[in-house]
Amino acid sequence: MITCLRCQSAMDVGYLMDRGHGNAAGTANWVSDPPEKRWYGIRTSGHANLPVTAYRCTVCGYVELRAPLPADE
Fold it and tell me: Where are the alpha helices (DSSP H) in 1-73?
């Protein structure tokens, strides 16, 4: 169980919703290195790309974001 860094209460797991092309729903990802802007958007190929997990404190509302490596790495 993850506890809040501010008040040491329990935290609920969740995610950040992101809207993409055509307003399609997805989840936020952490991408390594500074963004490389291109005419079509931001280039992500060749960069580490990890899903972001959000934790929200059940008492004070503090939100913590984590992008853990997959278990098999």
Answer: none
Q: Which residues pair with 71 in a beta bridge?
A: none
Task: Give DSSP secondary structure letters for 34-46.
Answer: S-EEETTEEE-TT
Q: Domain of 15? A: 11-66
17-73 pLDDT, tens digit each: 988 778 889 899 999 999 999 998 888 888 889 999 999 999 999 999 999 877 655
- What is the pTM (predicted TM-score) of this model? 0.78
Structure-token pair, residue 10: 């329990």
CA–CA distance, 8 with 16 (Å, rounded to integer) = 22
Residue 1 lies in a domain: no
Number of domains forming the structure of the chain: 1
